[in-house]
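ARCHIVE RECORD
Type: protein–small molecule complex
Small molecule: 5'-deoxyadenosine
Source of inputs: curated submission
Record status: active
Notes field left blank by submitter.
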Amino acid sequence: MCYAIPGRVISVDGRTVTVDYFGESRKAHLVNDSVEPGEYVYAQGGIIVGKVSEKDALEILDTWKEKFFELKNVDAGLAAPETESVLSPILKKAESTGTLSRNEMLAVLSAEGDGLQSLYSTANRIRKDNLDNACCVHGILEFSNYCETNCLYCGIRCGNKALKRYRMDEEQIADAVDHAVEELGFKALVLQSGEDPYYTDDMLVDIVKRIREKHGILVFMSIGERSRECYRKLYEAGAYGALLRFEISNPEIYGRMRPGKKKEDRMQLIRDLNELGFVLATGFLIGLPGQTKQDIINDILLTKSLKPDMYSFGPLIPHPGTPLASVEKSKLNDVLKVIALSRLVDPEAKILVTTALETLSPDAGRAALLAGGNSLMINTTPPEFRKFYELYPGKAKEESVDDTIKKTVGLLHSLGRAPTDLGI
Ligand code: 5AD
Ligand code: SF4
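STRUCTURE (tokenized, with ligand):
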């Protein structure tokens, strides 16, 4: 399985590399490595993460040659032309300018009936016109479900005493990463845990170094609030990605949902991650109690203002072992509207279709990819741990990771999407 197509370096200008993929050129950045024109490389999240020999590259490119163009045609065929609806003036404005007023954003979030289909197909067209058919498929490894924080919405909050806890040690993490990279073919992996101080900065740095010495992959850290210094060391060790949602822009709801935590601290850390050079994924939860449409507009605009490399937002799925057990689950359309609206106001964004969304309906992943979404994550946590990383109910799928990969790639191909990240 292959989640990245090797590209041939055409030119190097300082830290910016121009890479060719079947005659199309894209840009990617160099962090520590150096490359020469003519070499073959893998880019993930706009960063060169590894080199590949010419022989291997040509072999892989040969398997992609026809598929690459075939998929583009399928995608183009599915991108429906403009249809008239009550939302048409707003959608036309978004398509030509990439901006909307707050009132227009509100009208989009309030859309019903016919307006919905034209909204989703416009968002899909904007995605295709700006980003083509590339769809990042990242793996995620949940290495510890201990968390010292007590977010009201989260199944692994420290207050949930009923949950069996686990921590993977360095060896287990290294083995799981080897499997995800060598057997499953991932080129980008998110290392996720609760806020677990058991892992010292040095331990995390060692884990990252060990991975990066062996694998040319993009490592994302998703470990919650650690010091800026900790993240700086992790970047230096070779983890160039960070996933940290701000969760909710409304400060009052934030204070209620995350006892003992300050929104400003989290925002500062997210800005720090950007400054440190991380490929940043951030976003928010949809459906928290008290969150209004105006809050969601603020959530989208705040995400945009952080200039993330990837939007990561999803519906709250109430967990029975949390104080939010009886909150009503979001409806699929409410989440699709947020995806589509984000696409309208940030045409070049990578928008992750989260697994939480996929639990709302068996067809949710497909619907989200056709409403502006263009990135996915696949859980590679070893089965013996996976069921305990229960942020929300229904998260751990019964099927094997191989089956999930097969299904995901099948879905992407049926939509004309290439499961690959080419750069920018
Ligand atoms: N439903 C959906 N998402 C959740 N998260 C935590 N609890 C839930 C839930 N019940 C999300 C948070 C966090 C991410 C790791 O998981 O947004 O940032
Ligand atoms: Fe911990 Fe994150 Fe869950 Fe909050 S959302 S309890 S910080 S794992």
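CURATOR ANNOTATION: The pocket of iron/sulfur cluster (ligand 2) is lined by residues 147, 149, 151, 154, 156-157, 194-195, 224 (CB under 6 Å).
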